[in-house]
Amino acid sequence: MYKKLLVADDGSEPGTAALNEAIKLAKADGGELHLVFVIYHPKTFGHPIINLAAVEEALEAEGRGVLERAAAQAQAAGVTASTAMVEARREPIASTLLAEAARWNADLIVMGHAWAPRLRPRGARQRRRNSVARDHAAGVDDSRARLTSGS
């Protein structure tokens, strides 16, 4: 059913649960994973007392570690996986993930439940659907650029 699963992984426990669920779905349907780590640049990054280079270096190192671990886990399970580190500089994380999902032609976005509150566009009406991946999945409807969270 789902052949191209984008997995948003931040290295957290919910992110690991989402990765595990995505691996199960990919194995069951012969799908492939696209593992994504988002580097988020909040507005405070422009503050003069913050060592921006050090913060960015630490975020990139964390992202590389998360993606390497996730790719190794997928490979060990016999699932094909690619990785990407994407940046959300001024745009919302939701927009960044949706753009990456559209670029990769993802059938499904899989994420831990901790992401859900950060992904709901302000003022947008949220449509809830049951999904095969329970609360770890969100489907992408490219025609309307909308995110629908599983419940």
Task: Describe, in short, the structure shown.
The chain has 151 residues and is α/β, with parallel strands linked by helices. It has helices spanning 13-29, 52-76, 93-104, 116-119; strands at residues 4-8, 32-40, 81-88, 108-111, 128-129, 137-141, 146-150.
Uncertain residue ranges: 122-151
Strand content: 25-35%
SS element count, helices: 4
**How are helices and strands ordered from N to C?**
EHEHEHEHEEE
Number of DSSP strands? 7
Structural class: alpha/beta
Largest sheet properties? 7 strands, mixed
Distance between the termini: 19 Å
Instruction: Name the helicity range.
Output: 25-40%
- Global outline: elongated
The average pLDDT value, as a whole number, equals 78
Radius of gyration: 15 Å
Structural topology:
Elements: E1 4-8, H1 13-29, E2 32-40, H2 52-76, E3 81-88, H3 93-104, E4 108-111, H4 116-119, E5 128-129, E6 137-141, E7 146-150
Parallel strand pairs: 1-2, 1-4, 2-3, 5-7
Antiparallel strand pairs: 4-6, 6-7
Tell me what you see in this structure:
This protein is of the alpha/beta class. Helices cover 38% and strands 25% of the residues. Strands 3-2-1-4-6-7-5 form a 7-stranded mixed beta sheet, sandwiched between helices. Mean pLDDT is 78; it is low at 122-151.
